[in-house]
């Protein structure tokens, strides 16, 4: 098994809230996984280049949480930054030529709404890389860079797994 597959599978070791974690597949640098309780399915990857050493493993994920009877959340972006950010600093996601402002806490960032999530996933499908840029707590700029090869397939595999229940 190559190094990329090991890294993606290692992300599967991130704690499940409860229940069992199922590996759906590994698609280049992206993996697709599902948790049974609460039910959620997600595509996830580590950055190919991180903005610095951290106490945790940075990642980007696109997740779906189905709801009984239909509805739920689909294709929601979540990014764990490689370091703590300055609380006053903006967090910007760059996907190809598109830029998105994210909502963030000290170490995590999300799209501000479902419309932005949809635009981000659309941009991911047609781009080769993405980066998340902000300022560290100390004030220096940093970026986490992700390769997107395999991302669309992993996102679709995760979404399909949640549809199947």
CATH fourth-tier homologous superfamily = Invasion associated locus B (IalB) protein
- Rg calculated over all Cα atoms: 15 Å
Level-2 CATH architecture: Sandwich
**Cα shape:** globular
How would you characterize this protein structure?
It is a single chain. By secondary structure, this protein is α+β, with helices and mostly antiparallel strands. It is built from 3 helices and 10 strands, in the order H-E-E-E-E-E-E-E-E-H-E-E-H. The chain has helices at 3-11, 114-125, 151-164; strands at residues 21-27, 30-35, 40-45, 59-66, 72-80, 91-95, 98-104, 108-110, 129-135, 141-147. It has a 10-stranded antiparallel sheet, sandwiched between helices. The radius of gyration is 15 Å and the shape is globular.
Which features would summarize this protein structure in a list?
165 residues; globular; disordered N terminus
Write a concise synopsis of the structure shown.
The chain is an alpha+beta fold and 165 residues long. The chain contains 3 helices and 10 strands, in the order αββββββββαββα. The two termini are 29 Å apart.
